[in-house]
Specification:
Blueprint: E1 7-12, H1 15-22, E2 32-35, E3 42-45, H2 47-51, E4 71-74, H3 77-91, E5 98-102, E6 105-109, H4 116-131, E7 135-140, H5 143-155, E8 162-164, H6 170-179, H7 190-198, H8 204-208, H9 212-219, H10 221-230, E9 248-258, H11 261-281, E10 284-294, E11 308-317, H12 320-334, E12 341-349, E13 352-353, H13 368-381
Parallel strand pairs: 2-4, 7-8
Antiparallel strand pairs: 1-6, 1-7, 2-3, 5-6, 9-12, 10-11, 10-12, 10-13
Helix pairs in contact: 3-4, 9-10, 11-12
């Protein structure tokens, strides 16, 4: 079709598991899972594990009967993030326009290439050859249909990992959409699905052919755009640059319950340092900080407490010392010594570009050279190589359990594989 757009969604298969298998090829045909923080729940499954009936998010302790069969790994996010960046760099060789949608998904603009179908299979081949990462690719004129096409590429072996909506006839498109429940459509959650079911809209075809004015008046412009996308009318452009964040959050569950104030301070200092570094990377400043604690909500035998505190900075800042001092002061106001906590976190709000601020004579600010030196050392030698005393790794007694974590093969010198 003339002027037909070709938007491809490239999705890495079982990404966390695939990352682990790069360095453990002996596991390529064996059941493998990756677990969440504290080795709690299943967050990535190989196809062998899916065939065993294990659901996403299932607690690992409930799978005792499979422990001798399934190889489990703790989440190794440094490894996964590094492999993800390599995937995105390789995809850039196939299209000048790429939107990184998530750690394992990217949209590519392939419109204008004569060999879109062959190019998609080349992408799959090169991902396996250069990175050992299997991917599935869906191609369509809109992002919503590209997500659906990718879903089909994953589910149907005959597609060989690539499915193009643009190669279908109108009759094939109708047959396909009639067989797809609305729960499979990108952006349709359970609540919206129930509302649409009351209007006798249960399939993708019924949603596509629904009255657009009714959809817009009852459910808003977002769903109306989705319907237009199902009608092959692009409403969602590819975004090459991520819009500025509204907040920056760092939070983590503890490996065990914590009541000691010094350990809680260490955890909060760790999160404060992390959000400060992220803030500077994005060349932003924060006006407001939130510190919060949580107990284990599954422990009915223990007192429950979920305090939080908000504090404004005297002036917008990106300084690690200022942010850490303010966070720890807030923590001391809310922590109860008689309560054992399971989680702590720090969140920065009121973000603004650093270029929007003109310093005045009366606002005391830390030396930019100090923070630049801090970031340069940590970037060269690893996170928290240089940190404030309260963020000392030697007192990081709250760290989550990672009993099954693999080496950081690509980001730590001591973990590099040695070939003889």
């Amino acid at each position: 079709m003339e002027n037909q757009r070709d938007i491809a969604l490239v999705d890495c298969d079982n990404f966390f598991v695939s990352c682990e298998r790069i360095f453990r090829p002996d596991l390529n045909t064996r059941p493998v899972v990756v677990l969440s923080s504290n080795d709690g729940c299943v967050v990535s499954r190989s196809k062998e594990v899916k065939a065993m009936g294990v659901k996403m998010g299932e607690p690992w302790f409930k799978l005792q009967k499979y422990h001798s069969v399934i190889t489990a790994f703790s989440s190794n996010f440094k490894l996964y993030a590094d492999i993800s960046s390599r995937v995105k760099r390789l995809l850039a060789d196939f299209s000048p326009i790429q939107e990184s949608y998530s750690i394992d998904e990217s949209f590519l603009e392939l419109t204008g290439f004569r060999d879109v179908w062959d190019r998609a299979f080349t992408i799959r081949h090169e991902m396996l050859r250069q990175l050992s990462i299997p991917v599935c690719i869906g191609i369509a004129p809109t992002k919503t249909l590209a997500k659906l096409a990718n879903h089909i590429a994953k589910k149907h072996p005959r597609s060989r990992g690539v499915f193009s909506w643009n190669r279908l006839t109108e009759r094939q498109k109708q047959t396909l959409l009639t067989a797809i429940p609305i729960s499979e459509i990108w952006g349709i959650g359970k609540k919206m699905g129930r509302h649409l079911a009351r209007q006798q809209i249960t399939t993708a075809w019924q949603l596509k052919t629904a009255n657009l004015d009714m959809i817009r008046s009852r459910y808003g412009v977002i769903l109306a755009r989705l319907v237009s996308e199902l009608r092959e009318e692009p409403c969602l452009d590819l975004v090459e640059m991520r819009p500025p964040r509204q907040q920056i959050l760092s939070s983590r569950s503890f490996g065990h319950l914590v009541s000691r104030l010094d350990v809680l301070e260490n955890a909060v200092a760790y999160h404060a340092s992390h959000v400060s570094e992220t803030l500077r990377k994005e060349k932003s400043l924060a006006n407001l900080i939130q510190v919060f604690l949580q107990t284990d909500r599954f422990r009915d035998d223990l007192p429950q407490h979920a305090p939080q505190v908000w504090q404004s900075f005297p002036a917008p800042t990106d300084d690690t010392l200022t942010i850490t001092q303010t966070a720890i002061a807030g923590l001391r106001d809310i922590a109860c010594p008689l309560v054992a906590y399971k989680k702590a976190g720090v969140c920065l709000h009121g973000l603004m570009p650093a270029t929007d601020i003109t310093p005045d004579l009366f606002t005391q600010r830390s030396s930019p050279a100090l923070t630049a030196t801090l970031d340069a050392i940590n970037q060269r030698f690893g996170p928290n190589t240089l940190c404030v005393a309260s963020n000392n790794a030697q007192t990081r007694l709250w760290q989550p359990r990672k009993e099954k974590i693999s080496p950081e093969y690509t980001t730590r010198w001591s973990d590099f594989l040695i070939c003889y």
